[in-house]
Amino acid sequence: MRAKLESGQSLIEIIVGLAVGVLFIVAAVGIVSLSLKVDFSNTTEQTGIELANDLINNIEVFANADWHNLDSLTSGTDYHLATGTPFFTSSSTEEVISDGIVDFHRSFSWAPVSRSSVTNQIDGNGDNDPSTALVTVTVSWQNSGDTDSVVIKKYLTRSRTRIFSQTDWSGLPEQWDQPAWIEPNIIINDRFATSTNASTTASITISGLSEVDNPSIQTNIDSTGKWAWNDVFGWIDANTTNTVWVSDTGITGYANALNIGYIAFDCTTSPNGDICDLPADPHSSFGVSNTTDGKLSGWAWNDVIGWISFCGNIGGGACGSNPDYQVTIDTSTGYFHGFAWNDVAGWISFNCADVAYCGTSNYKVKTYWSAPSEEAKLTSSTFNTQRSGGAGFNTIIWQGVKPAGTAVKFQIATRSSPLDGAWPDSDYHGPDGTNSTWYETLGSGSQEKILFGDTAGENNLQYIRYRVFLYSNSDHTLSPRVDDVIINWSR
Amino acid sequence: MKNSFIKANSRRRRGAAALPVILLLGGIVVEIGVAGAVLLFYLNNSLYGSKLASEALALAQSGSNEAVRQVILNKGTLGPIGMSVGNGSFAVTISRDCVANSCTVTATSLGRVLNREHTIVTTMLVNDDTGEVDIQSIEESE
């Protein structure tokens, strides 16, 4: 009886044991199976990551060798790299790499990048930067009916820079092309294409002016436009005494009437000094006043002919708001107009245009007060980047001296093919891609980005010229001095 | 009688041994399976980390390239530069050390995706007069 019981228990134990064993084995097989599947999946994904890393590194090498390897491809289109001559070529056909079990589909695409013109940071609303691209590499494969993929994004930039640095303009003009050079030894000689009103030596300045104020110049009457006329006593020279100064409030100093002597415009600066406070002098406290819009009034004095009125009425009386005669200054040009009156000699004319006499005698008086600054400009020879696909023009810098009130501005012209002789003015552009704007740096040594607007497509060309504009201060006594012009570009 | 007891007793012993043996063997099998699963979990994690690390490295390199570009456009750039790309981001700090007109500019770019980071240090020589940039070295930093 006991033996029977023990035997039955053993059978149940065996059955339970087998059942538990089967469960264990099934579980173990499941785990092992899952492990193998995941391991396979991991191995495949690891391969995908390696393939993606490999491609993105190769693209960087490909773009560094020549940026146009990348940016000449259609953005947003999938490509792959193939081994070619000398090392890589791009192809738009699909690349399939197989490890014997899985087929990996590998491709890349690129997208243009915009940049803020203020902060230089990448900004989707900024200007297109022709030297930056966002590259996306994708590797995909099939895994149990699903598509798995690895995506890696990377910003690439055209970082191999070169410079054109011109430091001397003492050579002759009408050199349309700079000499050829062999990479990386860029040659810029001392010649240029054209200049207007510029003094060209080791530096560029406005003709007749320098960056240092000339204390000997005490007048702002033009050295050529200095003549007024009276039918009785003839010419008045407003420049030679080097004392006549027109300001927002009046005229000081004295002119020289060739036949009757000096004409004083102001009692404090007469030929005899300050005579305003001489009580015995009948002509103390006189002067010619000005307004900011160039309307003169008041009295000048000459010892021979007496008072000269700059504004008044034929029947006498104060100047008022609607006088019969008045001398004025055109604030846009600096030219005097109108007539002054003297009881002895009659009308004094300041501009031949007022009497339609310029064809016979082209006399006029011109002041720099409120007139546009004096301007000089110089256009460089053509600089050849030798990049047939075009160079990325980055910045322009100038070195020199910029006295207060003066200005230095640039425009840039680019072309894909050389053109001898002068380039049209319309080729020279500022930052908005038109010739009505200029690149103007904060001062000597500061950089200004060369941007040609988003759509003008003028960056990425092979040939470039710069045109520099120099402006004097408003008194026409100071000029900026440009010692170096440097154009920074990327291969 | 004696033989019958011995026989019965020996059967009992054989029956009682089967369950512990199967339990023991099964336990070992399951333990190996669990150990494999745990190993797989960590392997999986490690692989995911490797993927993130690749993306972080690409971002750090993006930051390095971006720093060079910004120094080209503005030789006095001091940053910081940073932006998000996909699931990650890069942040660049720039230091500048000038002797006369020759400046050594160091850009340290940190690329990050989740908890994975890579740092790239780029050293440039910048001519402060002309703005010309010459890359001296690009190194990964710990």
Architecture blueprint of SSEs:
The complex is a heterodimer of chains A (491) and B (142).
Chain A: H1 2-65, H2 67-71, E1 80-83, E2 88-91, E3 95-98, E4 103-115, E5 127-143, E6 146-157, E7 161-166, E8 194-196, E9 198-200, E10 204-206, E11 221-230, E12 234-237, E13 245-246, E14 250-252, E15 254-257, E16 261-264, E17 288-289, E18 297-302, E19 306-309, E20 311-312, E21 325-326, E22 328-329, E23 336-337, E24 339-342, E25 346-349, E26 365-367, E27 375-379, E28 383-384, E29 392-401, E30 407-415, E31 447-449, E32 463-471, E33 481-490
Chain B: H1 2-73, E1 81-85, E2 88-99, E3 102-113, E4 116-127, E5 133-141
Antiparallel strand pairs in B: 1-2, 2-3, 3-4, 4-5
Keywords (chain B): Membrane, Transmembrane, Transmembrane helix
Transmembrane segments (chain B): 21-43
Keywords (chain A): Membrane, Transmembrane, Transmembrane helix
What is the CATH class of the largest domain in chain A? Mainly Beta
* CATH level-3 fold name of the largest domain in chain A: Jelly Rolls
Number of strands of chain B: 5
Q: Which assembly state applies to the chains in this document?
A: heterodimer
Helical element count of chain A? Answer: 2
Helix content of chain A: 10-25%
**Average residue pLDDT of chain B:** 82
Summed up, the helix count of chain B is 1
The chain-level structural class of chain A is mainly beta
Helix content of chain B: 40-55%
Radius of gyration of chain A: 41 Å
Gross morphology of chain A: elongated
Task: Name the CATH class of chain B.
Answer: Alpha Beta
Main sheet specs of chain A: 12 strands, antiparallel
Unreliable runs of chain A: none
- Total strands of chain A: the figure is 33
CATH architecture grouping of the largest domain in chain A:
Sandwich
Assign the CATH architecture of chain B. 2-Layer Sandwich
- Using CB atoms under 8 Å apart, which protein chain pair has the greatest interface? A-B, 63 and 59 residues
- Please report which band the strand proportion of chain A falls in: under 5%, 5-15%, 15-25%, 25-35%, 35-45% or over 45%: 35-45%
